[in-house]
What we know:
Elements: H1 2-15, E1 41-42, E2 47-48
Antiparallel strand pairs: 1-2
Amino acid sequence: MKKLVLILVAIVSFSCKNEVPIDHTIVSGKILNNETKELSVGSEDRKVK
């Protein structure tokens, strides 16, 4: 019984891996009535054009 508990603890600890957080965003859609051809996307730490 003790071995079974140890095996279950080992399986649970190996199956709970830390996933890397996603550091990108996908934006899709259509912009209507736009006069400029420039899109600016801002974030807290940088601005992307």
